[in-house]
Specification:
heterodimer, A: mainly alpha, 12 helices, 74% helix, globular, B: two-stranded antiparallel ribbon, 5 helices, 7 strands, 36% helix
Chain lengths: 287, 141
């Protein structure tokens, strides 16, 4: 009981610290790749505290409820990961979190927020099936959806589930909302949809969005680390390598359209996942 | 200086608005983002959204069309905010000052905190103007 409480507290405190640092490293590395010097590594924390000190302008009171929903569901799904609980439920909670963000976009009257929310929905459509297939793949391999069961296995998941690993890398690119899938929040395409789904959030509530994003990046890297849990540090190294790979992809890729994203994730990602699961059941036999 | 005040100085997000400038100053504003000047090392980011901005960077003389747009943008930026007026035209109206459609400088419509004169302004001068605006931002509340 005490141990679980400790895990919860450490997750709540350390995850945003590490996540914020990762975003700072992201900005630094991106700047270095573009031949610039770049902001200090702790820049995301400066941004966060500055936003906390700003006035909040309410466009619609409902959007505040949804941004809290996004944050809380994200934290709960991260807790599911760190408490080694059910992976399938984690995927559903992550879905709830993203849907909260979408509803936050729809609760305002701004056309830019609506565009962003529509595109966020398409992103959910693109990555959610892959994560569900990953859950099924884990079940096919271990006979259980529990993350604690993954930790008990001697053989890392990566050996048998490597096609799904490639698909999950694709999910990471979509979820980090970076090029080529810089679609819903539009980090760089301001002329197109301003700031997409986050357009109407200002001040402290925009800070909450950043906080949720920090939890989210830890959650996604954690899911990637699950592919090699024995020993865990290999998995963490794989996750960090995946993060750096995403930065490279962000800097070498142009922004793509929504349709391109969904087509690619459904054609390549889903086929990789389904073939992977089919192969596992083919070799093990359906029991 | 508290944590929030310090962060405010370290992370100024800029909204760049072009009234009816000849685009000379706008090119210089964008030049600040290039690797040579790289204002992001001070945490400055060019935001497309007034609701996320701290500093309004305005170029060009105000005309009758852009006056209400400018007023609207100013109202949408959450407090605390500062306004930096870039270029001679933005400061006084410049060569356009007695055109029939031009109201004059930006200060005819919204309160301006820092004037950066020049035609067109050099990127160093813009960065200097923004740093002066940051000192004002730090002293707010």
């Amino acid at each position: 009981m005490i141990e679980q409480f400790l895990v919860v507290m450490v997750t709540l405190v350390c995850a945003p610290l590490v996540g914020g640092l990762l975003f700072g490293i992201d900005r630094k590395i991106t700047a270095r790749m573009q031949g610039r010097f770049g902001p200090p590594v702790i820049q995301p924390f400066y941004d966060f505290f500055k936003l906390l000190g700003k006035e909040h302008i309410a466009v619609s009171k409902l959007q505040f409820v949804w941004i809290y929903g996004y944050l809380v569901f994200m934290i709960v799904s991260l807790l599911f990961l760190f408490m080694k609980s059910d992976f399938l439920l984690l995927v559903f909670l992550l879905g709830f979190a993203s849907v909260s963000l979408v509803l936050g976009g729809f609760s305002t009257k701004s056309p830019y927020a609506h565009f962003g929310a529509n595109r966020e929905l398409m992103q959910i459509l693109a990555y959610e099936p892959i994560l569900l297939l990953l859950a099924i793949g884990i079940y096919a391999q271990n006979g259980s959806f529990l993350i604690s069961e993954i930790f008990k296995q001697e053989k890392p998941l990566l050996f048998t589930l490597w096609p799904l690993f490639l698909a999950v890398l694709y999910v990471l690119t979509i979820k980090m909302r970076k090029s080529p899938f810089d679609i819903a929040t539009s980090h760089h395409g301001h002329q197109e949809i301003v700031k997409g789904v986050t357009t109407e959030y200002s001040g402290p509530y925009f800070a909450l969005f950043h906080l949720a994003e920090w939890y989210e990046i830890i959650l996604l890297l954690g899911i990637i680390a699950l592919f090699w849990t024995n020993p865990l540090w290999v998995g963490i190294l794989i996750a960090l390598a995946a993060f750096i790979l995403e930065l490279f992809i962000d800097n070498i890729a142009a922004r793509m359209t929504v349709g391109w994203m969904v087509r690619l994730s459904w054609s390549v990602g889903l086929i990789l996942g389904i073939l992977n699961i089919a192969y596992i059941y083919y070799t093990k036999g359906v029991s | 200086m508290g944590l929030i005040q310090k962060s405010r100085v370290k992370s100024p997000w800029i909204l760049h608005f072009d009234n009816s400038s000849c685009n000379g100053c706008d090119i210089e504003v964008l030049a600040c983002l290039t690797p040579l000047y790289d204002v992001e090392r001070f945490g400055m980011v060019n935001m497309g959204n007034p609701k996320h901005a701290d500093i309004l960077l305005i170029t060009g003389p105000v005309n009758r069309r852009t006056a209400r747009v400018l007023k609207n943008l100013y109202d949408q930026v959450p407090d605390p905010k500062v306004v930096v007026c870039v270029g001679t035209c933005g400061s006084t109206g410049g060569v356009f000052h007695n055109c029939y459609n031009v109201l004059g400088g930006v200060d005819k419509v919204i309160p301006v905190d820092v004037y950066v004169p020049g035609c067109s302004v050099r990127p160093e001068a813009i960065i200097d103007g923004v740093v002066m605006a940051l000192q004002k931002l730090a002293s707010m509340r």
